[in-house]
Design a protein that fits this description.
This protein has 262 residues and is of the alpha+beta class. It has helices spanning 52-74, 82-104, 154-160, 166-170, 208-211, 216-225, 229-242, and strands at residues 13-22, 32-37, 42-49, 114-123, 126-132, 136-141, 144-147, 191-196, 202-206, 249-259.
C-alpha cells in the first residue's frame, strides 16, 4: 500500500508582524531586502554585498526566490519531523547560494556579488531559523533578549575558539568579515535551529545595520516599551540612524499573540 502524503504541521500559534527597511545615513542605495508571507509563516531578511548594484541584485534575488523555493519544496516533503524541516531548510539555502553564484557569472549579474540571509519559518508550535552570514534572529521572552541565530563571521569563530574575548571582539580588525554567505564560491554551511514558540515571544530578524548601531540592551528596551511590531520597527530604525546610520537597516518583528492549548 502506498504511503500517504504527510501533512504540513498546522500552526498552533497566532502572530502579527511589522517590518522596516532604510538606506541609513551613509549609503546612497539600499542593498538590504526583506520578505514576509504571514499566511505561510515565512519571514526573511537579506543584506547584499559585492558593490552597490551587485549587492542590491543579490539580496533582491534571495528575497524573491528563496521564499518561493521554501514554500514549494515544503509541500513535497515526505516527513514533517523537526529534523526533516531543519534539513530541508539547510538544503534549500545551499541551493539558493548556488543559484546566486551562477547569476553572478551571467551577463545580468555582477562578479563577487552575494548576500547574507536569515529566515524564520513558523510551523506547528515551532520556529525554524536558518542563517548564512551575520544577519540575525533574536528572541525576546520574559524581558530577556537572546540571539538565537549564529553569526558566521571571523570574529564569531575567534570567540568560539576562545582566542579573543567579548571586549576584544568589539574593535577587532576583522569585524564585519563573514565566513559564509549566499553566492560564495565554496559550498556554504548554513546555521539551522528550531525552538518551541510561546505566547508573547517576540522574534526580531535584522541586518547588521541595526546591530552595529544599537546595543542589545537598547533593542530590548524598545521591544519592552513598544508592543506594536510596526511601531517597534520604526523606533529601532530611528535609533540606528540617530547613532550614525552607517549602513542599510532592515528588520522584521513577529509577535506571537496566542499559543494553542493541548
Amino acid at each position: 500500500m502506498a504511503n500517504e502524503q504527510a501533512s504540513f504541521p498546522k500552526k498552533s500559534v497566532s502572530y502579527n508582524w511589522g517590518a522596516a527597511t532604510d538606506k541609513g545615513r551613509s549609503r546612497e542605495t539600499n542593498e538590504d531586502a526583506f520578505a514576509a508571507d504571514a499566511e505561510a509563516g515565512l519571514f526573511l531578511v537579506s543584506d547584499g554585498m559585492g558593490g552597490h548594484r551587485g549587492g542590491e541584485l543579490a539580496s533582491n534575488i534571495v528575497a524573491e526566490d528563496l521564499p518561493v523555493m521554501i514554500e514549494t519544496g515544503l509541500v513535497k516533503l515526505r516527513s514533517y519531523s523537526v529534523q526533516a524541516i531543519r534539513s530541508f531548510l539547510k538544503k534549500t539555502v545551499v541551493i539558493q547560494s548556488r543559484h546566486v553564484k551562477l547569476e553572478g557569472t551571467s551577463e545580468t549579474g555582477f562578479k563577487d556579488m552575494g548576500s547574507t540571509v536569515v529566515v524564520l519559518l513558523i510551523a506547528g508550535n515551532r520556529g525554524y531559523i536558518a542563517n548564512a552570514g551575520d544577519s540575525r534572529v533574536y528572541r525576546y521572552r520574559n524581558g530577556k533578549l537572546v540571539q538565537v541565530s549564529k553569526d558566521q563571521s571571523v570574529v564569531s569563530e575567534l570567540l568560539d575558539k576562545g582566542k579573543i574575548d567579548e571586549e576584544q571582539a568589539e574593535n577587532h580588525p576583522a569585524l564585519g568579515e563573514i565566513t559564509h554567505y549566499i553566492g560564495m564560491e565554496e559550498k556554504i554551511k548554513p546555521f539551522v535551529r528550531s525552538f518551541v514558540l510561546k505566547k508573547d515571544d517576540r522574534l526580531l530578524l535584522c541586518s547588521d545595520g541595526l546591530t552595529d548601531m544599537v546595543e542589545d540592551k537598547d533593542i530590548a528596551t524598545v521591544l519592552h516599551e513598544q508592543s506594536d511590531p510596526q511601531a517597534a520597527c520604526d523606533e529601532l530604525v530611528k535609533k540606528a540612524n540617530a547613532a550614525g546610520g552607517h549602513d542599510n537597516i532592515t528588520l522584521v518583528i513577529v509577535n506571537i499573540t496566542r499559543q494553542a492549548t493541548a
